[in-house]
């Protein structure tokens, strides 16, 4: 198999040279193991945390060992009764072309008529994150005015569409012009954060959402959070999903100057990790799966090709080079 390892823990934006492609001959399959030819690899912002060398909610990548991540592939050999050659599966043995894993870490793809790679994006971990954050953490209701940062990304693009489907007024923050256009095409008020300070961004949000913000789905942090805090309505809920804007910082960024708005607005801000809500995956799939299959949810993908380009795809996430889910096609 060919796989990527990390040679050192980066400080700041990871250097491309820290990712090394290595080759290894796989041992014979043990009882209870499956061998999978990966067809699609996921690269996700949370992987930056695994490159920090410190345990967060998941252990860091081990230097010199195969990196891990979501992947979809085809079973090519099996010594487990539940899997046979040809089965399409998802698992965490990404960043490599062939994965050999205990069957307990492998799931057959659900029987929904969508392209297989959708289970890395809109019907996989990012989709589940959007659904859980909006419904279980922010407790979003149809009357809510909703604000979403990184709104055209893998998580954000489903958040805005689920909120629209509930009947909410939705504002999305994004960078590039084509992302703003995509948001507008889904009936979302689009606001760019580019070339703005927190005050200017807050003014743009106020214009796009004159009745304030009841739910803020936080993916970015920094000036997005500061601007959102200034526009909160009473009893607003902030679902803190991630803060990608600071993942490559080498020193802690100063906190939002207006955090006290949480007090004034009697608002609630709550972080969450999608893994804690995974027991609700079947509910998510029941609700969102048919909408995706019927084409009611528009999910974008940005596709890099070949295993060699996996680190480039990952690094491009921090430049906003993706619309929707960033994936690698092998
Ligand atoms: P995205 O598909 O949204 O890709 C990242 C996007 O973030 C980029 O396209 C870019 O969009 C934006 N971005 C990158 N750097 C910056 C920056 N410095 N300032 C502002 N925007 C930036 O990624 P995901 O949908 O996979 O993840 C979104 C967030 O959700 C991340 O914070 C991630 O860590 C978090 N997450 C949390 C989970 C949990 O369990 N809590 C699970 C999954 C994801 P643009 O062009 O608009 O700037």
From TrEMBL:
Transmembrane segments: none annotated. Keywords: Oxidoreductase. InterPro entries: ADH-like_C (IPR013149), ADH_N_2 (IPR041694), ER (IPR020843), GroES-like_sf (IPR011032), MDR_fam (IPR045010), NAD(P)-bd_dom_sf (IPR036291). SUPFAM superfamilies: GroES-like, NAD(P)-binding Rossmann-fold domains. The keyword Oxidoreductase applies. The keyword Oxidoreductase applies. It holds the Pfam family ADH_N_2. It comes from the Bacteria. Residues 12-328 form the Enoyl reductase (ER) domain. This is NADP-dependent oxidoreductase. The lineage of its organism: Bacteria, Pseudomonadati, Pseudomonadota, Gammaproteobacteria, Oceanospirillales.
